[in-house]
Design a protein that fits this description.
Blueprint (H helix, E strand, L loop, with lengths): L10 E3 L5 E3 L1 H4 L2 E8 L8 H13 L3 E6 L2 E4 L3 H6 L7 E8 L2 H13 L8
Antiparallel strand pairs: 1-2, 3-6, 4-5, 4-6
Helix pairs in contact: 2-4
Length: about 120
Amino acid sequence: MNSDRHPGPCDRNDEKGEGRTSPEAMNGECLQRKVTITNPQGFHMRPQAAFAKLASCSPCSVRVRKDEKQVNGKSLLELMLLAAEQGAELIVEVVGPDARQTLDALVAILAAPEPEELP
């Protein structure tokens, strides 16, 4: 069983309550992971730029959620709107053919406590 796999936008229910898979998920895996921001400066401009750049290089769809706000992980401007301070919990969702590798790399950026430790 895949521990990164959680119910979410990849699992849709039709009107009869029967599960079906979204078109995005058909193109690859849909994985999610919760990450707590440990950097004392929060998820600030430098790691946001690294995150958006890496996400943009991937063929996967990348979404980041904080509380009720969900943004495109390939957009630096949208990532800035999250205003994620130290201790904030973000959920990263990746859909696509290289979902596992992309998710692992993006989580490494979020989990880095100091800018010097960015991969």
